[in-house]
């Protein structure tokens, strides 16, 4: 009698999985563990943003309800904002979760997801290249060329694994022979830094091909990476054959570097979109020979096996594993620490506190962002009851409770904006104001545009005269900037009166630069003076909110998306953000002139931020109206796993 097959439980609702690269967005539904259906690939170029691509896939399904989703993306994931390196899509994780109506949306690096799939792959899912035998419960390395060169690794931890978030593809390329020196010299003509990703990738294969053609005094054809590969496999173009051979050798070097860096005795796995398509050619290529050429460590790497991942849905497998682990953390057994604590003490709560507990258990994610009035109303209790409930769990108050709750939901302790209320103690007020400031600084840091900052520093460094315009509460930003740049020897002046700004703007020259600081970027007085500056041919650097009229008038836009309502309280966090942008510009200019001056100015910036914090604390307690949130429009609690 045949033994019964183990039962595979279906998910209550299908899990949406996605693998987003720079060219294609692949989607699938996991209806039960390892059962992937409705697999489709969409061309990223056909959709203006990430949301449109997801929506298009969901609309192609007939009445499928999605509650939980995991997305593997070819990009580092650090914080709520995701800005793709190899494509223009950008989005907030929490905003996207709410817009799509999901309970859970995990965004992870694609190679982190692929790494988590490795322990779940069988012998039929990989092809071993060369000799070597993997040691059990040892570190595993992973890399793979596609639109870039992804790297990751797995470290054994108890019964599970810890995946490494890595950008090892950007390590500096080092040639091993004369041919590779020729390639390096060619690439140096176009790029200051040559990383392994620059060559061991789809665009890299095209670079190698052009470099070899130039060295052979031949005019290279306009061939894409797939076309170069096809000509090489068909053996009908010698330059393509040589290019693919170099590509495989360089991948061998990169793989050996990763192996010795990680001590990857569990093996090195090759994924990505290129190598699995090479088939038997890759096994015959110079990859393994180069991998074992490690000088004194040749014997060491020769014992390490190398594998090509051939499983069709390997990234989906890893993303599904990460999503399953997250959902187990959120489930009742054992649940997040704070939710488990609430379940344990339910029997000891008063009827009113029990209603708060049940509301939190049913709407944990909403409670993290809801003000106390909404929580009390939803639970049909008074606001003091909510506070007593929080303190019954050992929390200092509602803000402390929310931090612990958010930590349990996301697996990290978030830095997020939290509302100041009349019930807060002096300690809670201070903690909230400092936390809100830290959160905003991190958010602005994640949105920094390197090109814009460098352009602003360049303009300031070449300016004959530098003028700073701001109005009202932001006048301190202009005055601080004047002081800083005068110390750097740049003729500078600050104007905080709109009439003086117009008069001064009317005598500017084309070699002058004006820095305008405005939280909203919509004040009519500043927009008028910006027009006058443009008429005179001077350059404008604007520090303001994105998509504002002032930003559209600027030559250089430095985005600070934290707009505060000055009708209800004085600007606090946003003013500090504008001051820090000035610090970035000042330090950048100083670095170009005198590194010692840059260090001095950075120290002053740190001192001012320390001094500003108690001021902000007092301003918050004095000016914050009851029930008014400090949260910026974009500040959301992230719901992702790294």
Automatic annotation (TrEMBL):
<feature type="binding site">
    <location>
        <begin position="18"/>
        <end position="23"/>
    </location>
    <ligand>
        <name>ATP</name>
    </ligand>
</feature>
<dbReference type="InterPro" id="IPR003836">
    <property type="entry name" value="Glucokinase"/>
</dbReference>
<feature type="compositionally biased region" description="Basic and acidic residues">
    <location>
        <begin position="610"/>
        <end position="619"/>
    </location>
</feature>
<keyword id="KW-0511">Multifunctional enzyme</keyword>
<dbReference type="Pfam" id="PF02685">
    <property type="entry name" value="Glucokinase"/>
</dbReference>
<comment type="similarity">
    <text>In the N-terminal section; belongs to the bacterial glucokinase family.</text>
</comment>
<dbReference type="InterPro" id="IPR036388">
    <property type="entry name" value="WH-like_DNA-bd_sf"/>
</dbReference>
<dbReference type="InterPro" id="IPR000281">
    <property type="entry name" value="HTH_RpiR"/>
</dbReference>
<feature type="domain" description="SIS">
    <location>
        <begin position="456"/>
        <end position="595"/>
    </location>
</feature>
<protein>
    <recommendedName>
        <fullName>Glucokinase</fullName>
        <ecNumber>2.7.1.2</ecNumber>
    </recommendedName>
</protein>
<feature type="region of interest" description="Disordered">
    <location>
        <begin position="602"/>
        <end position="642"/>
    </location>
</feature>
<dbReference type="Pfam" id="PF01418">
    <property type="entry name" value="HTH_6"/>
</dbReference>
<dbReference type="InterPro" id="IPR035472">
    <property type="entry name" value="RpiR-like_SIS"/>
</dbReference>
<comment type="similarity">
    <text>Belongs to the bacterial glucokinase family.</text>
</comment>
<dbReference type="Pfam" id="PF01380">
    <property type="entry name" value="SIS"/>
</dbReference>
<dbReference type="InterPro" id="IPR050201">
    <property type="entry name" value="Bacterial_glucokinase"/>
</dbReference>
<keyword id="KW-0238">DNA-binding</keyword>
<keyword id="KW-0324">Glycolysis</keyword>
<dbReference type="GO" id="GO:0005524">
    <property type="term" value="F:ATP binding"/>
</dbReference>
<dbReference type="InterPro" id="IPR001347">
    <property type="entry name" value="SIS_dom"/>
</dbReference>
<keyword id="KW-0418">Kinase</keyword>
<dbReference type="GO" id="GO:0004340">
    <property type="term" value="F:glucokinase activity"/>
</dbReference>
<dbReference type="GO" id="GO:0005536">
    <property type="term" value="F:D-glucose binding"/>
</dbReference>
<dbReference type="GO" id="GO:0005829">
    <property type="term" value="C:cytosol"/>
</dbReference>
<dbReference type="InterPro" id="IPR046348">
    <property type="entry name" value="SIS_dom_sf"/>
</dbReference>
<dbReference type="InterPro" id="IPR043129">
    <property type="entry name" value="ATPase_NBD"/>
</dbReference>
<dbReference type="GO" id="GO:0003677">
    <property type="term" value="F:DNA binding"/>
</dbReference>
<keyword id="KW-0808">Transferase</keyword>
<keyword id="KW-0067">ATP-binding</keyword>
<dbReference type="GO" id="GO:0003700">
    <property type="term" value="F:DNA-binding transcription factor activity"/>
</dbReference>
<dbReference type="GO" id="GO:0006096">
    <property type="term" value="P:glycolytic process"/>
</dbReference>
<feature type="domain" description="HTH rpiR-type">
    <location>
        <begin position="336"/>
        <end position="412"/>
    </location>
</feature>
<dbReference type="InterPro" id="IPR009057">
    <property type="entry name" value="Homeodomain-like_sf"/>
</dbReference>
<keyword id="KW-0804">Transcription</keyword>
<keyword id="KW-0547">Nucleotide-binding</keyword>
<keyword id="KW-0805">Transcription regulation</keyword>
<keyword id="KW-0963">Cytoplasm</keyword>
